[in-house]
Amino acid sequence: MKHFLLGTLSGVVLGGVYGLLKTPRTGKENQDMLKNYIDDTTDHVKDVNEKVGDLKIAIQNLTDEGMKLQTEFMTDIQNLSNEYLYEAQPRVERIKRKADKINKDIEVATVNIKSTTTK
Predict the structure, then answer these.
(1) How many CA atoms lie within 13 A of 109 on its CB side?
(2) Residue ranges of the domains in the chain?
(3) pTM score, two decimals?
(4) Radius of gyration of the CA atoms of the chain, in A
């Protein structure tokens, strides 16, 4: 690993020196080109940072909107459920009364059948 890093570092230094010696541009042109490259890269990084900030804001807005919709939906469902139970209550009570009457009729019939069979 040590030899690899040493070789890589040597290659970078020698390549840089060779590039500077063999370039067809003057030192001033190279400086201007490097400055422009750094300025462009800085602008791109700033642009990416702004886009990431915008994305974070959009995600937060989407999350907030989702929570709001979820709350509204749950409230609506609860209201519908309560309304259904309120409307169904009289029917449930009628069914219960009829079931109680049927049970009483069965008890009376059972007593009558027992009394006729024991005589």
Answers:
(1) 6
(2) 1-117
(3) 0.46
(4) 43
